[in-house]
Amino acid sequence: MISKKKTLAKPVQRRLLVPLAVALLLLIGGFSLILIKMQQRHLDQANQLILKKSSERLATALKVQGESLAALEQILVFKTGLVETLQAENREHLLTEYEPIFSQLRKEHGITHFYFHLPDRVNLLRVHNPDKHGDLIDRFTALEAERSGKTASGIELGPLGTFTLRVVRPLFDNKKLIGYLELGKEIEDILDSIHDEFQVELAVAIRKNALERHKWEAGMKMLGRKANWNRFSHTVIIYSSLPQFPSVCDQHLDHAEHLHQDVNSEVEFNGK
User: Fold this and answer.
1) What is the pLDDT of residue 80?
2) Is residue 2 within 8 Å of 10, Cβ to Cβ?
3) pTM for the full predicted model
4) pLDDT at position 220
5) Sign of the alpha-carbon torsion through 93, 96, 97, 99
6) CA atoms of 272 and 92, how far apart (whole Å)
7) Which strands sit side by side in the sheet containing 113-117, from one edge to the other?
8) CB atoms within 10 A of CB 206
């Protein structure tokens, strides 16, 4: 004889099974959603930390390299005969003396610019480009060196549309200003090192209204980079750690009025 209690137990179990299954699924789903949210928050925080460290590393590297250029200048100013040659405005002798030194500095330290300027900031000699001279140098670093009477450094936009770290040192003879010595180098090696160290992709864009198209295209050709002036309405890319800057990120570069703020967005590029 079948027990009445057992008969009643099965329908009760069936009635409870569905709600329990639903509750379990909801519990699992909710727990999974929480894990996903936590993981996303962790990734966002990790990305923000990497960006912060990358930015700090850029500032540190510029400072260190600027100090290195200043130290090189300190050595160069003690070369015998510099004061007399500069005061005599003897371009040919300066070129003969310093062209081999520039070749060595370029090879060993990545120096790309080497100048001698007169006290009025008129260029006397570009050791890296001796055919061009006689123009007035009105860049911030030169103006700051003139104002302060001390070595000035900073990154500046060059005529070819590239960023250059420049260090300008006033030269004196018994407290009389006789001219300026300037060294400079491109900053791409710093960007490359940040890309390698933090495994981040970097791009540098410049507003078109700060450039002359033909000079910028010549500068990109000189550096062996592609020059696409027409890709953006307001900006051009002068550096990218990616061989091809992804079009899905174009929106972040070409605002008419760019705002310097954190932008968090997720895009798909190259299957990732």
Assistant:
1) 84
2) no
3) 0.77
4) 80
5) positive
6) 57
7) 123-126, 113-117, 176-186, 163-173, 152-157
8) 17
pLDDT band at 264 (very low <50, low <70, confident <90, very high): low
d(CA 52, CA 50): 5
> DSSP labels for the chain?
---HHHHHHHHHHHHHHHHHHHHHHHHHHHHHHHHHHHHHHHHHHHHHHHHHHHHHHHHHHHHHHHHHHHHHHHHHTTSTTHHHHHHTT-HHHHHHHHHHHHHHHHHHH---EEEEE-TTSBEEEETTSTT----B---HHHHHHHHHSS-EEEEEE-TTS-EEEEEEEEEEETTEEEEEEEEEEESHHHHHHHHHHHT---EEEEEGGGS-HHHHHHHHHHTT----TTSSSSEEEEEESSSS--GGGGGGT--SS---S--------TT-
Tally Cβ neighbours within 10 Å of residue 62: 16
Lookup: tokens for 63: 């400072």
